[in-house]
From TrEMBL:
Organism taxonomic ancestry: Eukaryota, Sar, Stramenopiles, Ochrophyta, Eustigmatophyceae
Domain of life: Eukaryota
Cytoplasm among keywords: no
Chief subcellular location: membrane
Record's keyword annotation contains Manganese: no
Keywords: Hydrolase, Membrane, Notch signaling pathway, Protease, Transmembrane, Transmembrane helix
GO biological process: Notch signaling pathway; proteolysis
GO molecular function, one term: peptidase activity
Species in which this protein is naturally found: Nannochloropsis gaditana
Subcellular location: Membrane
Protein name: Gamma-secretase aspartyl protease complex, presenilin enhancer-2 subunit
InterPro entries recorded: Gamma_Secretase_Asp_P_PEN2 (IPR019379)
Length: 126
């Protein structure tokens, strides 16, 4: 009988997978999920690492740190993609909101069934 070794995913791998899933689901039209991803992972990428996280707590100076370094760069890649997506997504949303608010009356009153607005008699002032 041959036993095969199946490596268990580490916590770093799980975080990379979560960040990747946040990005992919955000591509389905949920830019707020990109913002949630950035807010969730930002402290993990830009926070201070303790001695235990770097492996120096127990004198492991010869420890191979390529695994965590690669995982962190992979996590950074997905978080940066989410950041760019969130900025572009919210920028387009706010541009559309401003454009629509400035132009809806010029388009005629055919758009009124699709929006809620006060009658013209209410806009006469206080």
């Amino acid at each position: 009988m041959v036993r095969t070794f199946i490596p268990q995913p580490t916590q770093d791998d799980a975080q990379v997978l979560l960040a990747k899933r946040f990005f992919v689901v955000g591509c389905l039209g949920l830019p707020w999920l990109w913002a949630v991803s950035v807010l969730y992972f930002w402290p993990k990428l830009h926070g201070n690492e303790t001695a235990e996280q770097t492996g120096q707590a127990h004198g492991d100076s010869n420890l191979n740190r390529e695994g965590p370094r690669v995982a962190k760069s992979e996590l950074r890649k997905w978080v940066n993609r989410s950041l760019v997506g969130a900025i572009v997504g919210f920028g387009l949303l706010f541009a559309w909101l401003i454009f629509f608010q400035l132009r809806w009356q010029k388009w005629g009153y055919g758009v009124l069934p699709y929006m809620v607005s006060a009658p013209q008699s209410y806009s006469s002032g206080w």
